[in-house]
Amino acid sequence: xxxxxxxxxxxxxxxxxxxxxxxxxxxxxxLFPTYDVVEIxxxxxxxxxxxxxxNSLWRYRELLPLPAKIEPVTLGEGSTPLLxxxxxxxxxxxVWVKDESLNPTQSFKARGMSVAVSMAKFLGATKLAVPSxxxxxxxxxxxxxxxxxxxxxxxxxxxxxxxxxxxxELGARVELIDGLITDCGVEIAKRKLAExxxxxxxxxxxxxxxxxxxxxxxxxEQMKWQLPDVILYPTGGGxxxxxxxxxxxxxxxxxxxxxxxxxxxxxxxxxxxxxxxAFEAGEAHANEFGRAHTVxxxxxxxxxxxxxxxxxxxxxxxxxxxxxxxxxxxxxxxxVGSAEGLFIAPEGAACFAALTTLAxxxxxxxxxxxxxxNTGSGIKYLECFGxxxx
Length: 390
Ligand SMILES: Cc1ncc(COP(=O)(O)O)c(C=O)c1O
Ligand SMILES: [Zn+2]
Description:
Blueprint: E1 3-8, E2 14-15, E3 31-35, H1 37-43, H2 46-50, E4 82-84, E5 94-99, H3 109-122, E6 127-131, H4 135-147, E7 150-156, H5 161-169, E8 173-177, H6 181-195, E9 198-199, H7 208-222, E10 230-234, H8 239-254, E11 263-269, H9 274-281, H10 307-316, E12 320-324, H11 326-340, H12 346-360, E13 369-374, H13 382-385
Parallel strand pairs: 5-13, 6-7, 6-9, 7-8, 10-11, 10-13, 11-12
Antiparallel strand pairs: 1-2, 1-3, 4-5
Helix pairs in contact: 3-4, 3-7, 4-5, 7-8, 11-12
This protein binds pyridoxal-5'-phosphate and zinc ion (ZN).
Pyridoxal-5'-phosphate (PLP) is lined by residues 107, 133-136, 202, 234-240, 298, 345, 347, 375-376.
């Protein structure tokens, strides 16, 4: 294993990875795993990677935590298709979708949980707790079951039913809270010490971001190490966006890619757009978004601990932030479904709608290479489409 220590994303304090950690003890901000990249470069080359048969995200084992002799907790996550659009996005010559709905539990949350549950188990945690907008809960329930650990999942009462049912059928203890994901997080923080729970909140433990960073490695490998010009990503907690950016930095250090970076666009819902607001106001942090509401439950995150990291990425990359309203997302699900054969999640649909908006505004050029992330499956959101919807 090439993990050397944990580094604070705000104060640069360094910590021992052998201790089960949440946030930085000094400043309460997220901790990032740090690796001996020079040694990784000696052990693994791009060419060697291309000959590997392992299809799960553990094909990037050298770039992930977990001692080499320890078996990861895996359900075959990762290696999702990168599909070129055929009809949607007319007028744009090269748009791709990375379809994350093919992961175990049908969302990209599987990536983070495979790595984080592997490390939590290795470091001795037995009871895992998470506040979830829906998909993270399902993923934790699956990986905790696979690992033989307890999962305690706190979700807003109006989380899509499929997510709630899924968690229960995967053996998790589910508590429904009258409130938002932030209220679920507060409940866990209040009780975790007495209950012996390890808090698996995104970016409040160091390893979910490592699983999500494999989105960046996989994309680079699938695109033959030429990153796209633009990435559109549906942003709640922001871990996917942050993870990819971390992967790009590591790959540049390894000499696998050039210094060119895609322009990163964060796509949010009009009813919950703290990052869009802060980006437009030129702020370094985002204020809590009042009365947050959207059918895209994964985007209903009024306050994210990694807000300052996201905002810096959007600005450093020359990208931006876009808000899409719910009616447009739902319309776009059917448009993409009938044009491309993909039943996408509303969060993914927000990115497709944002593509149209950004292209019309001249912020994406007709010849640019664009990648959209569809982070989940429409099948989990049947309420949105209504019984007998037109
Ligand atoms: C389908 C879907 N897309 C996007 C997100 C937002 O993810 P992130 O925390 O990486 O911003 C979520 C989070 O719950 C989700 O479930
Ligand atoms: Zn710190």
